[in-house]
Design brief:
Layout (H helix, E strand, L loop, with lengths): L3 H17 L5 E4 L2 E4 L5 E6 L4 E6 L7 H16 L13 E5 L18 E9 L8 E8 L6 H32 L9
Parallel strand pairs: 3-5, 5-6
Antiparallel strand pairs: 1-2, 3-4, 6-7
Length: 187
């Protein structure tokens, strides 16, 4: 599973991009496209007690720290079996993450009343590369959207998330260098 900060960044950046690509924050009924006014991102979690999807309401209006805190609280409530029903309803777009299971690619299923779901697969590192990237999969309703638009959404999301990964990697390397060297004493 993605670390806490990167998971929240996926929710945060997806929500911002849904304003630019509203077709993925919509649904089709009887041949008519309905656009949601709010961006409510569901995040699918399974801790061995069954799949639950908690919803970050109005995710496009929240800061990254707010989403980190809300995600943390939802996970704690899930672990303590204290999730409220209203926390699980009203998603307009969903993120599902199987990266922690080592799954590189999968076919996420779109939830009823939505037009898309983002799947996050495990890190794959191309031969010769120093850093790998998470695999991103966007399943979408082909009745209302086309592949080119999905590719643009994914491309922009990948660029934004790679910036987070690079910043985290550089921070880790910087912090590692600041560690004091072991002291060598003569016997």
């Amino acid at each position: 599973m993605l670390n806490e900060r990167l998971s929240a960044a996926v929710i945060f950046e997806s929500a911002l991009l849904l304003r630019k690509y509203p077709i993925f924050n919509a649904f089709c009924s009887a041949g008519v496209i309905h656009y949601y006014q709010e961006v409510n991102v569901g995040y699918a979690v399974d801790i061995g007690t069954g799949l639950k999807v908690f919803v970050v309401r109005n995710a496009d209006t929240k800061t990254l720290p707010q989403i980190i805190a809300e995600r943390r609280e939802a996970i704690e409530n899930l672990l303590n079996n204290e999730l409220r029903l209203e926390t699980l309803a009203g998603g307009t777009f969903t993120v599902t993450d199987l990266s922690g299971e080592g799954v590189l690619s999968f076919d996420p299923l779109i939830s009823a009343g939505q037009s898309a779901i983002l799947g996050v697969g495990a890190v794959s590192t191309p031969l010769g590369a120093s850093m790998g990237t998470y695999n991103l999969i966007l399943a979408f309703d082909h009745q209302i959207a086309e592949g080119r638009l999905a590719a643009r959404f994914l491309g922009e999301l990948r660029e934004r998330l790679e910036a987070y990964e690079t910043a985290m990697f550089l921070r880790y390397r910087t912090e590692k260098r600041k560690c004091p060297s072991p002291t060598v004493r003569d016997a």
